[in-house]
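Components:
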Amino acid sequence: MDPKINAGQAPRWQDQLYDELRRNNITQFAYVPDAGHSVLIDRSLADPGAHSVGLTSEEEGVAMLAGADLGGARGVLLMQSSGTGNCVNMLSLIKGSRFPFLTLITMRGEFGEGNPWQFAMGQAVEPVLKAMGVICLRIERPEDVLPSIKAATTMAFQSGQAVAVLLAQKLVGAKKF
Amino acid sequence: MDSKRNARDVAKVVAPRFVLARCQAVPALIGRHEDFLHISGLAGAVYDLTALTNHGDHFYGLGGAMGAACMMGLGLALARPDKRVLVTTGDGELLMSLGALTTIAVINPPNLSILCVDNGHYGETGYQVSHTGHGVDLEQIAQGAGIKLTRTVASEADIADGARILRQGNGTAFVLLSVKPTDAPRVKLNLDGAVCRETFRRALLHKS
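Structure:
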């Protein structure tokens, strides 16, 4: 990784998170660009053992991960809370066919949010995901990241569940406006 | 009213493109279906492929989640570079997921081909004219997305070339098959996605 990009600002938990995903044989990283996921995105792009796929819209990633599972591969969808809304009908693919599903969502529209446009979808993330059968694990403290991601990968890939890990705005920090 | 009349005029002009019969053209274009892992979109395409593969265990067909087929094909193609993946979709489903063409073109997996069976209509909901029936050209959109290997198959004479493109393997291929707005073979579908998934995975992951 380029030390200039990372110098003193990226919390260590993001690197631990990437390493844990790779230890769990996750090889497909589908993402919509997001500042909160930038370490994961950059590391997946630089990783010869991973496929890093930029999406035009988040629902593409839901379908892509279902295809990965058909081929015996594991993937993760990296998105922001607003992208959850774009996934809703596509999640019927996951529920109806019982595909394992793992997504990491950086939250907006909550703790300290300065952009009012973010609240409607941000506040709706959990009820919308739950309505579509996705289990939500919410993380607010850096020390909870690693245990939560271990739990989520077990639930998704061993137990075949759909799991969303919500990286709370308290954890990732509110954008300044 | 004027725009409605114009749309009808366009539909009449583009109609001569939709002449092939899908029940013959789809099997002719795909050829030996066992050469591919298949994903199909909902509606016409899932009927075409259920009939062609006879509910094969190398086939996963959608009954909903409209817009999923192309990106499922990408995930599968990346997971299994040793296999050729064919996505069969319709004009309606593809129009709903045009962004996927650009995402796929950027990755450009050599083992992925996309076949769009374009009848210019939404057959499943009562044959309302789709945007392609009003002149939208999905092959040009695929080209614009950056897919280098594209063809339109609109007559018997085009089929052999189209079949070759689907199997070429230098990069992702896109074939637009123009057909008459008539029904796909009306076979019984397996609409239990979980069974389809399990059957597909067992056949692929335990055999190879």
